[in-house]
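User: Just a sanity check before I run the rest of the batch. Below are the structure tokens for the first item. I only need the designed sequence back.
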């Protein structure tokens, strides 16, 4: 399998994993008090969008961190 395909798969799996972790973690927050009545679809959409933003950011951090470690080891 070419290296580019492997990196793409790892990036995709990492993004999806951290999005699910962010979504799961956000369920611990008490958001009932900040949601207006009859605005549940908007609240769910916001919940998903925030989970994607957090998960994507954390995933990029870990991918960049791992790539930086690999580059440091290439120096030696």
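Assistant: Here's the designed sequence for the first item:
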């Amino acid at each position: 399998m070419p290296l580019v395909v492997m990196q793409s798969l790892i990036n995709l799996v990492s993004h999806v994993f951290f999005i699910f972790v962010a979504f799961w973690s956000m369920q611990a927050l008490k958001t009932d008090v900040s949601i207006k009545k009859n605005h549940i679809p908007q609240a769910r959409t916001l919940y998903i969008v925030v989970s994607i933003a957090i998960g994507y950011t954390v995933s990029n951090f870990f991918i960049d961190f791992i790539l930086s470690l690999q580059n440091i080891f290439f120096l030696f």
